[in-house]
Design a protein that fits this description.
Radius of gyration: 20 Å
InterPro entries: BTB/POZ_dom
Strand content: 5-15%
Distance between the termini: 39 Å
Structural class: alpha+beta
Organism: Hortaea werneckii (Black yeast)
Number of strands: 4
Protein name: BTB domain-containing protein
Largest sheet: 4 strands, mixed
């Protein structure tokens, strides 16, 4: 979704946003922030992190600087993308995941289509980075993927689990090292479950079957309905073709 610049009020107050992990400030128009956070005066009462005298907003407890930069980019352009691709797949995915978790923590109205659009844009980028690594640099390995923080019952966690089961996995470890990794007590049950599922998996992956599998679906999400219908039609045609062959 590309955002039209003419819908942004550039005469609006500029808010100076401080996030965790950096002393740098981001300077964002107030009206854009309030679409996500709600009225800043109310936000101040709840979190005591907005100073109306200096227009400084401290989100250090709810967002990391690099992740919130992606959110700010989306607020202005409607797009998600990293400016620096030289940092490696783990660092890049950490930034994207941090953006998702920040949006999840900070958004004041999770029933709003605006919130789901942001979350879904982040997930689209996350999925694309993993399944199409040639567009971004090095492919992510199994052990790299396991370094990415996972919060249970969130869309990034659901996708990472599906990728371990269905994905085209790569590893830089020798088999005996990988076995040891999967037997680690701290994550052993999760990984054993994944490996057992992987043994019996074949056919279309969840992200091919439904391009919106990791989206939040709110009322009026016509784009998701259209994408899912198209994917279903392509899957059906592929199945019929294989049956004929």
């Amino acid at each position: 979704m590309k955002r039209k610049r003419d819908v942004i009020d550039f005469t609006d107050d500029i808010i100076h946003v401080k996030c965790g992990g950096s002393d740098k400030l981001m300077h964002i128009h107030r009206s854009l922030l309030e679409k996500m956070l709600g009225p800043l005066e109310v936000f101040e009462l709840v979190c005591d992190e907005f100073d109306p005298m200096t227009n400084k907003l401290d989100l250090s407890t709810g967002a990391q600087h690099d992740g919130f930069q992606l959110i700010a980019q989306w607020l202005y352009t409607g797009e998600i993308g990293l400016a620096d691709e030289a940092s490696g797949p783990v660092t890049a995915l950490n930034v994207v995941v941090n953006a998702y978790y920040a949006a999840d923590r900070l958004c004041f109205d999770r029933t709003a289509l605006y919130w789901s659009s942001l979350a879904n844009a982040i997930m689209d980028h996350l999925v694309d980075r993993v399944i199409n690594p040639e567009k971004y640099g090095a492919a992510i390995t199994v052990e790299d993927l396991l370094k990415i923080p996972r919060i249970p019952d969130t869309e990034p966690s659901h996708f990472f689990r599906d990728w371990l089961v269905h994905g085209d996995l790569t590893s830089i470890l020798r088999p005996e090292q990988l076995d040891h990794l999967f037997d680690d007590r701290s994550t052993g049950k999760f990984l054993r479950d994944v490996l057992e599922q992987r043994l019996g998996v074949a056919g279309t992956t969840p992200w091919e079957k439904n391009p919106c599998a990791y989206h939040l679906h709110m009322k009026g999400s016509k784009q998701c309905q259209a994408r899912t219908s198209t994917a279903r039609m392509l899957t059906d045609n592929s199945t019929k073709s294989s049956q004929v062959d």
